[in-house]
Every structure is written in structure tokens, then in C-alpha cells.
């Protein structure tokens, strides 16, 4: 019953998204050509847009399926829907624009397309917000709930119980647990031992049996799953090794063999990576164009401040531990015998007067927009280090090398929180790992805005 209900909800969302696609296109066309709010020249009648709209609906449906908008799940947050809706919009837009190009629809208005994408994202997220609000009301009245029976007790059970009890909106209720005889008392009612599992399942309507056996009792799993299968009850295994897994583990398989990624990196997802790369290219290109006059002024001041090259080029370690040449405006006197030291520190005698200003304002980092265009770096990400420092830190700091799973950035979560320059490497890595494991496009936008207002200067900027 519950599974059928959730399938129905996803089918309802599927139909609603199709209608939202058409309505968003209709709204965009009318806002552009009928509202008199936007100037326009002669245009084709609305009827000519109908076949394109139908294809757009199919393209955005496909994009929604690929982006996970219709995955059956009991637990979903608004931000999760918003992120998937954005992914679907980006992917759908790429499919749609490709079809327009190859189909020869050169007359299609770009303003209509832009308005449509914004309206589509808002409508898709809005539909799901309404759905979540309705489900919240229903579930708080103890309706639309799934019943869970726990079997055993391991190190992960208490966390599961706390999460479900503190978030009734998830729609789960724990009936109780069955003891293996070796486990401790927990905060839910004990219904007996595992010997009575068959009887409990027959007398009660239970949606999920969560097997939470310790490492010592894991051999009993086959017996428990066999009982669940004989009565058609879904069984789930709660691992007893969550302490070695990240907050959001990723599950993969090879020829049907299940594998758990112990360090989930959202940017390993092709769609996430495409979104981030698109953002990098747009910001990098716009940055070079808009800041070009400033580049010229800084270059002139660097040349006048001291003899030597305008740019300082240094080898850094990037994604997948590959080295690249990173560019900066030179902020120190040009003397190879002096410039080959360690990190800069406060009152560093190697700096020029203008170089001190560049370092305080982080304007010396601006040439790295070119690194972004080349694909060596991202706008947002962990700061790259020199190979000799990487070799040292990888030995001293656990998980340090995880930062090389993604492209390094001009600015990052560690930098906007003050961990830059001659500060704690451990704290910097801790922030870098948090960013890597919790990346979202919204998170990047947040860091970007924080960089503008607080990240371009600070105690570590010397």
C-alpha cells in the first residue's frame, strides 16, 4: 500500500512537471510578446511554438529522470528538490538548445528561453514545496507512515532512532526491536528475541525490518532475511561500520557486487561537474573581460614597483595530483635566490610596497582566472599547494590528499572562514573536506558572495 502510494506520488509529480513545462513556456512567450513589458520585433504566432513546447516537455522530462527528480523516497528536503530541479533545468536546457540548433529553429527567442528556464525551476520546486507541506501535515497526524521493526543493536542504531524520532516529517514509526540476547536495552520497546520474528511479522503490518546486527552476530543475517522474504517484508541492513563512512556514502556496483564509496564526493557526479564547470567558465570569462582594465593598471604598477616580470608563475598540485602552472601578479622583489623560500609571513622582507597591497587585498590572485579558463582550477575550491608542501602534509595530516579529488580554487570555504596564509593546516584541511563532501551549487554561490564581502582581505592575507 505504502509503496504504491509513493509510486503514485512520483507519477503525479511526473505529470505535474509536464504541465509546468508547458505552462512555463506559455508564460514566457506571453511575457515576451503580449505583456508589453519587453520590447520585441515581429514574431511568429504562438501556434508555431507548440511543437517546440512539446519537444521541450519531453526533453525536460528526460532531464528530470536523469537528475533524480522522480526517485521514490520517503525522506526528501526542499533543498534536495531545488538542487535536482536546477540540475534538470541545466541538462534540459542543453538538450533543448541542441535540438533547436540542429532542428533549424533559429527564430526561437532567447529571452523566451531564459524566462522559461527561471519559471520552470520555480514551478518545479514550488510544486514540491506544496507537496512537502501537505505530507508534513499528514504525517504529524500519524498518517502516511511506514512501520519499522529493528532487529538487534549495533553502533548505528541509536543514531537511527534519534533521527527518526526528531524528524516525524520523515514519516517513519519504530514499532520496537528484537533482541539477539547479546545487545543492550535501547529507547524503543523490546518485543522479544529474534526467535519470534516470524510471529511478529505475521501479527503486525510492518513495512521495513532494519537488521542492525553487530559484527559478531552478522552470520544471523541470512536467517533473518529468509524469514522476511518468506512473508514478503522488505529487509534493510544498517551497517555496523558507519564510523568509517562519510556522512553521505555513495553506493556503486560491479557486475552486481555492491560497493560502498567511503568518501562520497558530489563532484564525481557528471551532472554536478558539468554545472560547476559551466559556472567556472562563465565567471572566469566574465572576470577576465570585466577586470581587463584593472589587470592593465596592476601590471603597470607591478612593473614600476620593482624590476622583473609582471607575473609570478609557480608549480602547484591540482586535481588527481597533477601539477600545473599557477599565475599570480608578482608581489615580491625579483631575485630567484630569495624567492625560493617557504610561505610568506607577516612583514615578509621579500615583498614590495605595492606587493603588500596586492597581498592584503588578494588582487595578486586575479590572473588565476586564466587557470580557471584552462581547466586547472575552479572559482571555488581548496587552495592548491606546492609539491614539496604536499609531500610533507600528506605524511602529517590524515585525509590531506582527499582535497585532490576536485579542482583547486581561487577561493574556498577555508579561506572565507579565515584559514589562509600562515594558519593551521589541520583546520584548513577540515574545512576543505567539509566543502568537498557537501558541495552544492548553492554552497559555491554562498562562498562566492562571502569572498566578495569578507574573503578578499583578512589576518592571513600577507
Automatic annotation (TrEMBL):
Query: EC annotation?
Result: 2.7.8.31
User: Which enzyme type, at the first EC level?
Assistant: transferase
Q: How does this chain sit within the bilayer?
A: Multi-pass membrane protein
- Gene3D superfamilies recorded: NAD(P)-binding Rossmann-like Domain (3.40.50.720)
InterPro entries found in the cross-reference section: Bact_transf, EPS_sugar_tfrase, Undecaprenyl-P_gluc_Ptfrase
**Keyword Transmembrane listed:** yes
GO-annotated molecular function? undecaprenyl-phosphate glucose phosphotransferase activity
The protein depicted here goes by the name Undecaprenyl-phosphate glucose phosphotransferase
Q: Which keywords appear in this protein's UniProt record, sorted alphabetically?
A: Membrane, Transferase, Transmembrane, Transmembrane helix
One Pfam family here: Bac_transf
Which protein family is named in the record?
A: Belongs to the bacterial sugar transferase family.
Q: Per the record's keyword annotation, is Transcription included, yes or no?
A: no
Which subcellular locations apply to this protein?
Membrane
Query: Where do the Bacterial sugar transferase domain residues begin and end?
Result: 276-455
Give the organism the record lists: Alicyclobacillus dauci
Q: Which residues cross the membrane?
A: 12-29, 49-70, 82-106, 112-138, 281-300
Amino acid at each position: 500500500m505504502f509503496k504504491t502510494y509513493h509510486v503514485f506520488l512520483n507519477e503525479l509529480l511526473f505529470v505535474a512537471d509536464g504541465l509546468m513545462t508547458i505552462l512555463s513556456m506559455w508564460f514566457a512567450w506571453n511575457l515576451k510578446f503580449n505583456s508589453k513589458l519587453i520590447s520585441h520585433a515581429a514574431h511568429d504566432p504562438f501556434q508555431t511554438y507548440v511543437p517546440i513546447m512539446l519537444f521541450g516537455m519531453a526533453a525536460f522530462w528526460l532531464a528530470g529522470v536523469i537528475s533524480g527528480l522522480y526517485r521514490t523516497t520517503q525522506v526528501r528536503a526542499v533543498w534536495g528538490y531545488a538542487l535536482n530541479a536546477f540540475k534538470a533545468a541545466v541538462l534540459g536546457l542543453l538538450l533543448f538548445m541542441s535540438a533547436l540548433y540542429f532542428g533549424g529553429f533559429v527564430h526561437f527567442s532567447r529571452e523566451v528561453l531564459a524566462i522559461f528556464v527561471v519559471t520552470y525551476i520555480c514551478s518545479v520546486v514550488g510544486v514540491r514545496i506544496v507537496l512537502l507541506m501537505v505530507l508534513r501535515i499528514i504525517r504529524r497526524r500519524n498518517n502516511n507512515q511506514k512501520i519499522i521493526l529493528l532487529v538487534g543493536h549495533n553502533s548505528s542504531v541509536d543514531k537511527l532512532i534519534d533521527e527518526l524520532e526528531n524528524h516525524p516529517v520523515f514519516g517513519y514509526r519504530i514499532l520496537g526491536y528484537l533482541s539477539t540476547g547479546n545487545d543492550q536495552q535501547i529507547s524503543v520497546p523490546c518485543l522479544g528475541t529474534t526467535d519470534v520474528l516470524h510471529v511478529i511479522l505475521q501479527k503486525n503490518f510492518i513495512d521495513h525490518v532494519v537488521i542492525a546486527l553487530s559484527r559478531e552476530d552478522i552470520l544471523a543475517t541470512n536467517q533473518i532475511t529468509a524469514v522476511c522474504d518468506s512473508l514478503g517484508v522488505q529487509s534493510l541492513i544498517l551497517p555496523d561500520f558507519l564510523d568509517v563512512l562519510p556522512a553521505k556514502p555513495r553506493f556503486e556496483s560491479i557486475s552486481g557486487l555492491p560497493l560502498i564509496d567511503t568518501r562520497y564526493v558530489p563532484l564525481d557526479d557528471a551532472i554536478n561537474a558539468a554545472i560547476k564547470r559551466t559556472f567556472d567558465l562563465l565567471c572566469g570569462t566574465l572576470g577576465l573581460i570585466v577586470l581587463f582594465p584593472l589587470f592593465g593598471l596592476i601590471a603597470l604598477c607591478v612593473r614600476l614597483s620593482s624590476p622583473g616580470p609582471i607575473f609570478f608563475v609557480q608549480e602547484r598540485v591540482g586535481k588527481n595530483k597533477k601539477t600545473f602552472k599557477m599565475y599570480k601578479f608578482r608581489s615580491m622583489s625579483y631575485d630567484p635566490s630569495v624567492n625560493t623560500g617557504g610561505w610568506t609571513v607577516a612583514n615578509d622582507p621579500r615583498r614590495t610596497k605595492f606587493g603588500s597591497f596586492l597581498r592584503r587585498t588578494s588582487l595578486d590572485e586575479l590572473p588565476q582566472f586564466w587557470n580557471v579558463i584552462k581547466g586547472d582550477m575552479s572559482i571555488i575550491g581548496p587552495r592548491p599547494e606546492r609539491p614539496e608542501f604536499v609531500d610533507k602534509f600528506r605524511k602529517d595530516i590524515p585525509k590531506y590528499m582527499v582535497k585532490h579529488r576536485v579542482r583547486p580554487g581561487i577561493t574556498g570555504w577555508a579561506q572565507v572562514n579565515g584559514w589562509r596564509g600562515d594558519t593551521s593546516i589541520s583546520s584548513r584541511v577540515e574545512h576543505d573536506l567539509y566543502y568537498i563532501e557537501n558541495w552544492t551549487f548553492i554552497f559555491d554561490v554562498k562562498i562566492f558572495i562571502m569572498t566578495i564581502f569578507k574573503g578578499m582581505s583578512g589576518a592571513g592575507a600577507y
